[in-house]
Amino acid sequence: MKNIIENLNRVFDNRVRLGIMSILVVNDWVDFTTIRDTLNITDGQLASNIKALEKVEYIEIQKQFIGNKPNTSYAVTKLGKLAFEEHLKALEDLLNLNG
Amino acid sequence: MNQQNEHLQTLTEIRSMMERSSKFLSLSGLSGIAAGIVALVGAAMAYLYFDMDFFRINAEYVQRGIENEVSYRTTYTKWGVKPIPFLLLDGFIVLVLALSLGFYFSVRKAKKHGYQFWDNTAKRLMINLSLPLIAGGIFALILLFKYDLVELIPPVTLIFYGLALLNGSKYTLDEVRYLGISEIALGLMSTWFVSYALFFWALGFGVLHIVYGALMYQKYDR
Questions:
Q1: Which domains are assigned to chain A?
Q2: Pairwise CB contact (< 8 Å): B21 & A91
Q3: What would the pLDDT profile of B154-194 be if each residue is shown by its tens digit?
Q4: Inter-chain touch B13–A18, beta carbons under 8 Å
Q5: Hey, is the C-beta of B7 within 8 angstroms of any chain A C-beta?
Q6: What sign for the dihedral angle of Cα B207, B212, B189, B55?
Q7: In this predicted model, what pLDDT tens digit does every residue of B96-131 receive, in sequence order?
Q8: Residue B115 is inside which H or E element, if any?
Q9: What is the predicted ipTM?
């Protein structure tokens, strides 16, 4: 029981971060506005949580210009994908154990 | 127990977010039903126009090796139109009406469920659908105008439409995949039984759309 709870990743103890990861694991590169609109959150909320995910190297960032507008896209890293899958597995294990 | 529910809810939310950001879910069952009805009306018009099964007669002529110039399709006229222009016009009207109604019902569903209609998944689905469709369309036009093989148009449209659906199905509701496979199967059968091309066409574009549309409506729209 204790082991399983330890498998829950603290980084994902946050709805917005989980949302960002959910989008990124099933897509290649997704830009800031698309993530923001899909999750229906503010710029500030998204920016701070992206920073947190970037810090632990779960996502990577690509900045480019489309015309003369800057455009930032994000993708999940191998490490991030692994961590996210383990977190999902841990959640499922917890449910199976008690259910 | 509370925590249990919380985990369950988190998992459900994650799953739905993964699905929503990778698949076009706005596709409405009503779009399918509408397209199916339009196709049936189009097929009925063709049936009425010829008074009989044009494709059977045409195929028999072709099999007997009668010259194209004297064949049934170049001499026949009804409602002031010859067969080929009539079929092209009929097909074009069906296509435009089916697409417009399809868009209308899917935009409506997107609004109702609070999805964005024109998002990345819509674009991806569109690209994956259009490439096989354009290839099939050009192929059909070449068959018609260069080789005069009008009876192969219904099978070809069924097969390429099925391939387009199969190709796009990864980006939308799962049922689309099975609809695609069924269209391909009907297309192949109709290539064999070419005399019944119009019947197979009505079955594929009419009946199947209505059946799958109703199924999808039951499952996702309400």
A1: 12-92 (1.10.10.10)
A2: no
A3: 999 999 999 999 999 988 988 999 999 999 999 999 999 88
A4: yes
A5: yes
A6: positive
A7: 999 999 999 999 998 888 777 888 888 889 999 999
A8: none
A9: 0.77
